[in-house]
Amino acid sequence: MEYNERGQYVSHVSCSVTPFHLTLIDDIRIAVTYAFNDKIEIIKLSNTHVQTITLVKYCHGISYTDGKLYVMVRTIGIVVLNLSEKILNTMPLDTEHSKDRIYYTNEHNNTIHCLCLSGQEIWEYHNESIIQPLSITVSDNQDVLVVGSTSNNLSIIKQNRKKSRILLDKPGN
Q1: Which segments of 12-107 are extended strands (E)?
Q2: What is residue 93's predicted lDDT score, i.e. its pLDDT?
């Protein structure tokens, strides 16, 4: 949905199925993955033109940088492709990028990971208060925000990884 600066509704973009994750490509395009679906849609916001990219398994997290899409593909890992749909790389591994790094979660091991763009691991983080991490984003100063699905919380991991704290917690936790 699009709203103007006064908070009034302007328009919306219809999605083919339930959206799972999205990333901004530029001022006029977004890329969207869908729950339990092997498609990525690149949507031009001005006229809702859609380019569909089909991969071999369900697509989850997605991120865009330097002309490349980084897509978490179920049971495969992070697939790197260009906007012409050419697969450039596959990294066995939920994903987010920031500057020259890729961040992802491993919901089964309750860990958060940071990689360089070539796929080499820089660090791994574990905290008992973050259970089944499923969604992740990175701030401009490299702090990592992560949602614990089972722990029902939103945590921030400071860029040096020495401090973390729960920002939002489900009442009763």
Answers
A1: 19-24, 29-34, 39-44, 49-54, 59-65, 68-73, 77-82, 87-91, 95-98, 101-106
A2: 64
Using only the alpha carbons of the chain, give its radius of gyration. Answer: 17
Q: Can you name the residues that pair with 164 across neighbouring β-strands?
A: 157
| The model's pTM | 0.59
Q: Quote the tokens at residue 153.
A: 């919380």
Closest CA to 31 of 50, 56, 12, 55: 50
Tokens found for residue 110: 């309750």
DSSP bridge partners of 9: 3
- Give residue for tokens 């066995």: 92
Q: Please tell me the predicted confidence (pLDDT) of residue 85.
A: 93
Whole-number pLDDT of residue 91: 81
C-beta separation of 71 from 87 below 8 A:
no
**Each residue of 112-168: pLDDT tens digit?**
998 888 878 899 999 999 999 988 888 888 889 898 989 999 899 987 777 888 888
CA angle 31, 34, 35 (to 5 degrees): 155
Report which residue type is found at 133. P
Half-sphere exposure in the Cβ direction for 156 (13 Å, CA): 9
Amino acid identity, residue 108? H
Neighbours of 35 (CB within 10 A): 12
The full length of the chain comes to 173
**Mean pLDDT for the stretch of residues 19-42:** 88
